[in-house]
Amino acid sequence: MLTSQRKALILDRLRRDGQVIAKALADDLSLSEDTIRRDLREMAAEKLLKRVHGGALPLSPDLPDFSARQAVSSEEKRRLGAFAAGMIKSGQTAFLDGGTTNAEIARRLPKDLAVTIVTHSPTITGELEHHPVAEVILIGGKLYKHSMVATGAAAMAAIASIRADIFFLGVTAIHPAHGFSTGDFEEAAIKRHIAQCSAETYVLATAEKLDAASPCQILPIKGVSGLIVPSDIPEERLAPYRNAGVPIFLA
């Protein structure tokens, strides 16, 4: 088997299983464990995976600060935001998580839409300043500056008193085996709590968030009502998520 074929197989295993065990893969392919370990080292240097003792895990995405992410307003994010905004109906209570993609939802809400928007992100509330008929509820607490959202016990208690019709969850990574994840333990707990207090939960995902895993799981892959992705993502990348039973919406 050629080196390129082995590396393609390793990436397929990572997408499918969420991990690669060097010894098990070597046994499956009737190769030496040293050969597989060498492949994993090279792939880690190429930033294709994360090396760990005995094997490899999917790469954790970089976490630039909020200001850096805010400066990138891609056409992908705008399409996702417009699609999600169209899902919010008059009279509903919608919870918007923090993040630059969810900010696009707020920007694209019709100005005459009578809804209640709940958020724990002060930056999201700023986007809703010129929506005269929208009720806006800002959840307070300890500010997690990286994502500009409130966390902690006070935020948890306030969220528990609200039942949202729809929640748009922000994540840093999505994987068929590892589910939806983010880089901070406290933020993951808040996101999970909001989902538990909401009738439906949807995730807007740009292409780079797929097939990756961050340290802190928010929800398993079947824990959301749907995944909203750009329409130009190849079907072969979406197949593992469809096979896992996640409804996918193309924006």
UniProtKB/TrEMBL annotation:
Gene3D superfamilies: 3.40.50.1360
InterPro entries registered for this protein in UniProt: Carb_Metab_HTH_regulators (IPR050313), DeoR-like_C (IPR014036), DeoR_HTH (IPR001034), NagB/RpiA_transferase-like (IPR037171), Tscrpt_reg_HTH_DeoR_CS (IPR018356), WH_DNA-bd_sf (IPR036390)
GO terms for MF: DNA binding; DNA-binding transcription factor activity
Ribosomal protein recorded as keyword: no
Classification via PROSITE patterns: HTH_DEOR_1 (PS00894), HTH_DEOR_2 (PS51000)
Keywords: DNA-binding, Repressor, Transcription, Transcription regulation
Pfam families the record matches: DeoRC, HTH_DeoR
Statement: the UniProt record of this protein carries the keyword Signal: no
Residues making up the signal peptide according to the UniProt record: none
Residue span(s) of domain HTH deoR-type: 3-58
Name of the protein described by the UniProt record: Putative regulatory protein, DeoR
Originating species: Rhizobium freirei PRF 81
Native organism taxonomy: Bacteria, Pseudomonadati, Pseudomonadota, Alphaproteobacteria, Hyphomicrobiales
